[in-house]
Every structure is written in C-alpha cells, then in structure tokens.
Amino acid sequence: MIALLRDVIVLTKLPISAAVTLTTALGFLLFDGRVTADLGWCLLGTLLAATSASALNQVQDAARDARMARTASRPLPGGRIDRATAVFVATVLALLGFAALATVSTYPLSAMGLTALAMAWYNGGYAGLKRVTAFAVVPGAAIGSIPPMVGWVSAGGSLDDPAIWLVATLLFLWQVPHFWLLVMRHGDEYAAAGLPSLTERFSPAALARITFAWTLAAVAFAPGVALSVGAGPVPFAVVTALSVALAGASLPLLRVSPDGAPGAAVPAAAAPAAAPAAPAAAA
C-alpha cells in the first residue's frame, strides 16, 4: 500500500503540483489579503487539476521516459501502473478539481476556464511542441503564468488589471531559465529519448550564458513588479534582496567552459527558485 501511494505521488508529481498552488495563492492574496473559504477551494481545485495534468503527461511521455535514466523508474515505464489506471486517475482528479473551482463564489467560470486553458496548453500544445522544437519551453512557459490568474479571479479580481499581468509575466520569465538548467544537466538524455535539445544547438558555455541572460531579466523585473502591485517597503526590500542574491548565485553560469568540462559545471545554487510550472516538471 505504501509503495502504491509512493507511485501515485510520483505519477501526479505531487510536490511540484503543490508548489504550483503557491503561485495561485499569491494571485489570490494580492487581490484579497484575507484567508477565506474561496482561497481554500481555489487552491484545492488548482492542486487537483495540476496533479491530473501531470498524470496525463506521464501517460503521454511513458515511452520516452523509459529511454531516460532520470525518468525510467517512474510508475508507467517501470510497469507498476498501467496506462488505463493512470488515465482513470487523471480523469477523476480533473473532475474533482473543476468541482472545487466551481465552488468559488466569485468568477468560478473564469477560474475554471483559465485552468482548462492551462491543462490544454500543457497536455496539448506544449506536449506536442517539445517533440518538434528545442525551444518549446518558451511558449510552454506561459503555463506557469496562469495559476496566479486563477487565484486573482477567484478572489474577485479582473483580468483587465495590469497588476496581475505583471505578476504573470514575472512567472513566465522564471520558467525558462529553470528548465534550461535542467537541459544543461540532462540534455543528452533528452536527445537519446528523441526529444530536440538545446545541447544539440548550443555549446555548454553558450547555453549557460543564454540561461544567465533570462535569469537576469527575471531578477531585474521582480522589484518593479513588487512596486507595481503595491508591495510595502518590507516586501519590496525582501524581493530586491532575493533578486540580488539570485543574480549572484547565477554568476557561475558565466564560467562554464565551452566543452562543459568538469569543474565548470553549473552548481545547484545557480538554479532559480522559480515557481514550478508544468514545463519545468515535464521532461
């Protein structure tokens, strides 16, 4: 029973799916700072929908996962859960997720629509794009910008408000370097599994510098977003300090050698503490 539970957690990528709800909570609390029942239903619905999308993605990627050392032990390629069971689990989780979002008292249809859009783009658009282009994560990163919008509308906010679009843009910027750091570590596995990889197009040094540029863009953007959404002096100072720290932690990216030789690899500290989104978790 414990082994099955562990497999379900892996199948649904529960830790990553749970982290997605943090950005949903951010959107909700930015508009309405109160902890209400609507917040609870919104977070539950987002969590269930995210776990559903993750489970379905593992069904879609089972054959390729079997060819990558990092993912070969997942429940489907490992033969511990069959495809029909995984699809059933994903369907039940999706239905429960949308039922929870329907309980939200303000703009439930908007919350459900945005969630459906995120799932469709993840399991449809992005899942297809990553099979044909190494740059799929750029449009795919839009998925990570949707959860705070779900929280925002669930709290009664309007998508006409520029503030939520600034937050969404920041989260979009975070997704790309987060994923590209994974590519730098596991690019050869992606290529072996038949997925286009940026490691086939760029040298390790070039890819590291591109990743650093995206990270720096997000770092520079974050304090401005904090000001734009009305953050007080303390939150603004915290965001600024974290941004400076992240910029410093990313500097080793500039020291990666052209051949990616040992001793020049990207340290774990350089990975952005991005809000996890589907693309970052998918490969």
Largest sheet: none
Helix content: 55-70%
Unreliable stretches (pLDDT < 50, length at least 5) are 261-283
Strand proportion, as a percent range, falls in: under 5%
The gyration radius over C-alpha positions equals 19 Å
Count of discrete alpha- or pi-helical segments spanning 4 or more residues? 12
In total, how many beta strands? Answer: 0
Order of helices and strands: HHHHHHHHHHHH
**Helix and strand composition category:** mainly alpha
- Form type: flat
Cα-to-Cα separation, first versus last residue:
27 Å
The overall pLDDT, averaged over residues, is 86
Describe the model.
- The structure is a single chain.
- Helices cover about 65% and strands about 0% of the residues.
- The chain is an all-alpha fold and about 280 residues long.
List keywords for this structure.
single chain; 283 residues; mainly alpha; 12 helices; flat; disordered C terminus
Describe the structure in brief.
This protein is mostly helical. It is 67% helix and 0% strand. It has helices spanning 2-11, 14-31, 37-60, 62-65, 83-102, 108-129, 137-140, 146-154, 162-192, 204-228, 233-249, 278-282.
Show the helix and strand layout.
Blueprint: H1 2-11, H2 14-31, H3 37-60, H4 62-65, H5 83-102, H6 108-129, H7 137-140, H8 146-154, H9 162-192, H10 204-228, H11 233-249, H12 278-282
Helix pairs in contact: 2-3, 2-8, 3-5, 3-6, 3-8, 6-8, 8-9, 9-10, 10-11
